[in-house]
Amino acid sequence: MMLKNILMRLVRGGLFFMPILSFGQWVGFTKSIDPGFAWTLPAQGDVVLGFELAQLIDNATASVDFCFYDIEFPAVVTSLINAQQRGITVRVITDNALYSNPEILELENAGIPVIDDAFGDLNSGGGEMHNKFAVMDQAIIWTGSYNVTIYGTYSNANNGLWLENVGLASAYTTEFNEMWGSTTTTPNPATARFHGAKTDNTTHQFYQNNNSWQLYFAPSDGLTSRIIQAINTADYEIYFSIFAFSTASIADAIHQKMLSNPDFVVKGVFEETYWNTSWSMSLPMRGDGENGWDPPADVYKDSVEADLGLKRLHHKYMIIDGQHPGSNPKVITGSMNWSDNGESLNDENLLIIDDPNIANAYVQEFVARLEEAGGTLEFIPQGLMIEPPVVDFRNVNYDGSAQLTFTLKNLSATGIQIALGNFTSPDNAITISDSYNGTLAAGDSTSLTAQFNPAYLGQHVALAPIHLDGETSPSRYLTLQGRGVSDQPTP
Asked: Residue 487 class from Cβ within 10 Å (0-12 exposed, 13-18 middle, 19+ buried)?
């Protein structure tokens, strides 16, 4: 199964392992994160997203639909070609302005069909095919702000996520087929639709790990109104990190939250290129001009450091009530800048994700961008904290054993019902012989013990399920890991 291959790949052979947020989904960021804001698990920062995406393509067994504005990163190009050569169905869509990239020619020379947004009788290439998504085996999708380029990989602040969800994958495939003009490997110029020729023809509501995921495409689905609807649900705070933000109605919706509640917190980081541009919402939000906010929002010009060449804060995400898990935290992410072009002209995709763990991962990334830009944010402890967040036995002789204690602490103002049963990993190497099944009062903590008996050399990783407040599906996973080593010298 593809998910099993991905889980196995996450064991990298090192001493520290950062797990997926929950089974069937993963979020990563190209720049640093602040693990001090983690509820349970540190997010994955400083990730080479191109390698993560390439591995998903390498694990595909039947098909890859690849729809990206810019395609240049060598590892991804190689993975697409390798997939084609091993008999996988590969289809590629890109932007007309970037169709002349040598990497596109390389794909076509390998026999991969490629079209752009000028393809077909109904399309002229006006606007941008600005999507950044892929669908593997009609089951796993990748999306986010990441362009498949050297700069996008190593210099720009980007986010990427994948998840295994057949329903969402089907919706993305429907959108791909609408642009492709067919469901086959051969694109149809008579029916291919981009930009204003597209229709609102996909399902929008899905569920992943019992959490709501909404999916919308531009320009057919009215993405700006969807963002405003999400903003209107906010109770405590809105954080955002954005490349280009010119849509006044989105800014107005945020402003109304501030005006209606003096304790409501708004913090944002803007790409510095547009910090002083006349159309940018950075101006009124920081109190400049005749429409300047009074009081202003706490917004900053980014200070992202480039690891290689040109740098950009390229995110397009918003976090709603990200530090309040009881207030249905949301993350808005995808390819769309908050602009007229993003709303009405470009091909875009937008996800609205109601998942407290994903929201917390984005908060960790946001704090790092905010702090490097000169801002500050107070951590608001909430819910169940696990200390340490990863039970790491490190190196243990393969015929020996080790024990470690971890603590469950309730940081909320009310009791939490917790069920963590006796646990044994599939390879029998990691066990939790204690169990806890009861209500942990506000402010209280309890300590449990885990054991590691390696039995063989190499890395061992286990995810122990924790059920909160009677949920039938696991609410959290405790990560336990260790490495079996030999005290004998290598011959």
From this structure: exposed
